[in-house]
Amino acid sequence: MAKTEKDGKSRRELITLGSAFGLMGLAAAGTGGALFKYMFPVVSYGTPQKFLIPLDDLPDVGDELIFDDMKVVLRRQTETEVAAISLVCTHLGCTVNRVETGFQCPCHGSQYDSDGLVVGGPAPKTLPWLEIKNVPGGQIEVDTGTSMPEGTFYAVV
Amino acid sequence: MNELIEMAKEFGTKLYYSFFRHRLDNTGLTKSKIMFSNVLLHIQPVKIHKRSVKFKTTMGLGLITFYLFLILSVTGILLMFHYVPSTAIGPDGLPDAYSRMLNLRSNVFWGGFLRNMHRWAAHGMVAFVALHMLRVYLAGAHRGGREFNWVIGCILGLLTVFLSYTGYLLPWDQLAFWGVKVGTEIAKIAPGGALIRGILLGDTDVGSEALIRFYVLHVAVLPAVMGFLIAVHFFRIRKDGGLAKPADTSKEKQIPDEEFGEVKNNSVFKSARSYKLVEIVKGKEPKVNEEVDQMMFAWPKLIVRELIVLLGVVAFLSLISVLFDAPLEGPADPNHPTNPSKAPWYFLGLQELVSYHGFIGGIVIPGILAAGVMVLPYIEIFFESFTKTYRKNIPGVWFAKERNLENALFIGMYLFMLSLIIIGVYFRGQNWDTIYPWVHEVTGGGH
């Protein structure tokens, strides 16, 4: 009799402790999840991913032009063929410099040739070639979030 | 007249005893009361082992680290009065955060000095955390029930580094911008890193949101966590019986008794550690007589020594802060990294590793090192249990012969990190090319 009484007591204690800590744990988990969602960005205040260039601003044929703010170099092969190469290093996101041999990253020494192919350093991938679209009003739209195979030129009008 | 003096004396006595709850004499009772009736002093025990105050026991490394944390808290709060975490371009054409740095440096009275002090203390804290950890390991003080405190210490070390990292973003100069850019790109290549990066930056790229988040982390979240963990770290040292020491210290040479001043013994227990009578202490029996010659009152010798260390740290930091200005590069330019773009010295080892391979150098090797060092005492226990080589553990003794292998490996790891840092600081030039400091001038870097 005494034994069952003791068992009952410890069971009651276990239930009390379990529910107290369990509820606390649940509350903590819920709060943690909510906090995670709270901290996660929903709106971007940064630089837009796509940008427009008037056709008049394109480089001359056989030449190229660097758009600093967008970290893109625009290269014009023929009168109607244009390509955009990202200047964001594929290693850790520094902006690469245009040098005679191609592109070079000042942060960790990645080297690319003038088509963005890796020739040295820790960079894992070719510099992304970006998608270009014709948009009305004599402009083209470059999407810095894309990655096309190297040598992808687009026809512009 | 005499009556008046008597009344003034009585009033004075009442005033004194309303502030303090102890007399001022040489009895053990007073020396004890001074320690445990003061909220700041009671963190330390009334009586400590004599070897605790010897220079070679700790070299004061942990204490100096703690003092640097205090100095950083004070100077940091003062800097907050003049700082705005904003990237908005002001009338001078500079981001607000950056122009506040210029303001601190050139206009605010004491502004440059406090900023220098904050920066140099931060660098010092990273260095002293590393030295403190080395001391603890080489003296075997991470074992014998103190394994978990070692883990907490490692977390404190990581927090120190993370505080430095969030701190050097705040000036919004080139170093800040590209440091955070590269750091968060490293986070991105870790598994699940894109989520962490999003949470840290609050945006798709480093910008105004990142500055706010790093600011809040730097001035509120991380110091609060750090303060709490420091309390746990100290508490556990107390509960583990003070600094790690060998079981038998009777043969060690101690500082002679005369050095500690006279103690008038008015206790009925002539040789007892009286506070132990009211504490239940783990162990075979109350150690009344065996260790008692090697114990000393913490007041005043230990407290005075600690104050001298504090004065030394403050004096040295002040001197450095007057002589050397904290680095400030040009305002953040998201389009053009400086060339070379170097992190502060304590990250250059990591930057050097990353320059070989982003994932292996940035995630795998640092991850293994950090996690490995954190659980090091448990790895030791694991090997000892499974190979049944129970080594004689001699805590608190430098370079114990039984631990030669472990110590050599640990020193080797430190030398590895140090050589990477030296390569990063002195042997890397433009485009991270190898240079020789005796040929080229070393440039760049947050020092």
Give a written overview of the molecule:
The complex is a heterodimer of chains A (157) and B (447). Chain A has 157 residues and is an alpha+beta fold. Chain A has two domains: 1-40; 50-155, 3-layer Sandwich (Rieske Iron-sulfur Protein). Chain A has one helix and eleven strands; from the N terminus they run H-E-E-E-E-E-E-E-E-E-E-E. In chain A, the strands form two sheets. In chain A, strands 1, 2, 3, 4, 9, 10 and 11 form a seven-stranded antiparallel β-sheet that branches. Chain A has a four-stranded antiparallel β-sheet with strand order 5-6-7-8, with no helix packed on it. In chain A, a hairpin with a 4-residue loop joins strand 2 (64-67) and strand 3. Chain B has one domain: Cytochrome Bc1 Complex, Chain C, CATH 1.20.810.10. Chain B is 57% helix and 1% strand. Chain B has helices at 2-19, 28-36, 55-58, 61-80, 96-106, 111-138, 147-169, 174-189, 193-201, 208-239, 301-323, 345-354, 358-374, 376-387, 404-426; strands at 47-49, 295-297. Chain B is globular, with a radius of gyration of 26 Å. The N and C termini of chain B lie far apart (68 Å). Chain A binds chain B through residues 36, 39-41, 44-47, 49, 68-69, 71, 91-95, 97, 104-109, 111, 121-122, 124, and chain B through 178, 181-182, 185-186, 195, 198-199, 201-205, 207-209, 334-341, 351, 354-358, 361-362, 430-433.
